Amino acid sequence: MNRKPISYSSLLYFLLVTLFLSSCGSRETLRGVFKKETPYEAYVSSLKSAKLDQTAVGQDWLATGQTALQTPTPVTLPFKETGYFPADKPRALGYRVEAKRGEKLVVSLEMKARETMQVFMDLFEASTDPARAPKQVAHTDSTATTLTYVVDEDMAHLLRVQPELLRGGTYTITIQAQPTLAFPIPGKSSRHIASIWGDPRDAGARSHEGIDIFAPRGTPVIASVDGVVSRVNETPRGGKVIWLSDLNRGQNLYYAHLDQQLVTAGQRVSVGDTLGLVGNTGNARGTGPHLHFGIYRYGRGATNPYPYVHQSAAPIPTVKVDATQIGNWVRVSSKMANVRAEPSAKAALHTSLSKHTPLQVVGAANNWYRVRLPDQSEAYIISSLVEGIAKPIAVKKLRQERPLLDDAHSEAGQMDSLPAGAAIPVVAVNGQFDLVRQPDGRLGWVQSAE
């Protein structure tokens, strides 16, 4: 991968960070005694104590972390992406996941870097009120590679991943949802659920407070958690039923329409122990044998069991594109290209770009590139719509001396000066600016090249 070298100023900042954080280490340790901080918060406190929040690089790092939460990338699970954190330019990842109560979010992070580095992973509940900050619900130690969280409420969750200042490397992140409970009938799965939460019952007088899993009569029904059997009885509606108390999660599991009950009240059971056998007792007489499975949270009533037991059959997507392009420039190769909010053709449209628009590849997911657009936003474009910039699209001869700029902006910094008469290879076009390549391989921008 073609990586931009760290500038002298960045190296100087790194030395300052090391010096200041070392000098304030005891102060931060003392603060930690009185205030419990997450690793991210402790790191921010260290930056502020060292007054690095008043430097340009420190301010950029803090702003990048906030932006990751304010404009996260929506993703559908399971999700996998690889990309690069540059050492000389702060970058943070923000992902938005629609999560369901009872499922377990599992985030795995793999880093490849020359030096050991801290990477902060923080999970938040997204606020429905724009004026309120998201609520943090989980975090990892700065050297941990896995974050696991059992979702408490149906709502969007935000994941932020950000490395420490002036450290870089290649990342691969995987996000998936897993069940928190064992499926109550061994060998079956959510594909065997025939009636779901909320289905109408008694001509619409009530709704279904559980899921129905169909299986042959006499099929074993198992404990989905370690717990204590609290009730074994028979009711007109549920027939032969068993209640299993899940003390760790503050809820009761309800097994109904059993043909036989094989445990007694007060009995302690482990995951996988047989509780009874599938039947159709109670108001299920006349229907095929099945298990009605419900979950009732202490003091809060019934909740949808499906996310608690559903194991997605979708495989974790692999990165199918050329990952060596990460960190490099590409250009749009088609007449017009749609850029999406997430790596899916069904995702919301972020923008449309014309041919030869330059894009910087910052990541890859499945057969999509995550790219930084000319406006500095990040989104996804399918790999078949871009090409490398090794071959110029034109060679233009300058009629007069022109400044070589470091960005496609009239007020950008000048990297060099191009003499009149110079023949410059143009590799991409952004409005009135051409991305050009110097004989030494450097890239830069020229306004209205002729």
Indicate the topology.
Layout: H1 8-23, H2 25-34, H3 39-49, H4 56-70, E1 73-74, E2 79-85, E3 93-99, E4 103-112, E5 119-125, E6 135-139, E7 146-150, E8 155-163, E9 169-179, E10 193-195, E11 200-201, E12 206-207, E13 211-214, E14 220-222, E15 227-235, E16 239-246, E17 251-261, E18 268-269, E19 274-278, E20 290-297, E21 301-303, H5 306-309, E22 329-332, E23 336-340, E24 349-354, E25 358-365, E26 368-372, E27 378-382, E28 386-388, E29 394-397, E30 402-405, E31 414-418, E32 423-430, E33 433-437, E34 443-447
Parallel strand pairs: 1-3
Antiparallel strand pairs: 2-9, 2-25, 3-8, 4-7, 4-9, 5-6, 5-8, 10-13, 11-12, 13-20, 14-19, 15-16, 15-18, 16-17, 17-19, 17-20, 20-21, 22-25, 22-28, 23-24, 25-26, 26-27, 29-32, 30-31, 32-33, 33-34
| CATH structural fold name of the largest domain | Jelly Rolls
- Proportion of residues in helical segments: 10-25%
In total, the number of domains comes to 4
Shape: elongated
CATH architecture type of the largest domain: Sandwich
Rg, nearest Å: 28 Å
The total count of strands amounts to 34
**CATH C-level category of the largest domain:** Mainly Beta
Task: Determine the mean pLDDT.
Answer: 90
Could you say which structural class the secondary elements and strand pairing correspond to? mainly beta
Number of helices: 5
Largest sheet: 10 strands, antiparallel
Q: Give the terminus-to-terminus CA distance.
A: 31 Å
Stretches where pLDDT falls below 50 for ≥5 residues? 1-13, 19-33
Assembly type of the shown chains?
single chain
Strand percentage lies at 35-45%
Protein name: SH3 domain-containing protein
Domain M23ase beta-sheet core: 207-300
Pfam family, one: SH3_4
GO molecular function: metalloendopeptidase activity
